[in-house]
Amino acid sequence: MRGPGRGRGRGGIGGLEGLYRKVTASRPDDARTLNVKSVLALENGRVAEAAELIGRALVIEPAERTYLFHMAKVCARGGWWHEAADALRHAIYVNPRDAECWYGLGVAFKELGEPDQAAVCWQQCLLFEPGHAGAQEALAQGQR
């Protein structure tokens, strides 16, 4: 049985992490490599390491939506809701029609105790993706 923060065995994330290190050995510090290493670190419960890696990727490519969204996920997992909201605001600046970023910003605002701001974000999410189940459910819960 696997404990928290441990690899997922030979065929799982732990094995994948080792394989990825070998494949990217010639370019360990490019933004894409740092992003994937951050994803793998987060999957293995290493939030601080994931934050450091995605932060380095964003220094190289500060306007990359994928990296900004991942930074928000890392911050949310770490309970750093102000930082998650900042990353999502930047991602929305890069792509204002990104429904997932609007939804995530709503979640961050909810966690920060700002339900009115959260509702505005979820409505914006639904504007761009009318069937977004998470936003629909969040708004319905807020009206109860």
From TrEMBL:
This protein's record includes keyword Phosphoprotein: no
Pfam families: TPR_1, TPR_16
InterPro entries, per database record: TPR-like_helical_dom_sf (IPR011990), TPR_rpt (IPR019734)
Keyword hit for Nucleotide-binding: no
Ranges of the TPR repeats in the UniProt entry: 99-132
Keyword annotations: TPR repeat
PANTHER family: CELL DIVISION CYCLE 16,23,27 (PTHR12558), CELL DIVISION CYCLE PROTEIN 27 HOMOLOG (PTHR12558:SF13)
Name used for this protein in its record: Tetratricopeptide repeat protein
Lineage of producing organism: Bacteria, Pseudomonadati, Pseudomonadota, Alphaproteobacteria, Rhodospirillales
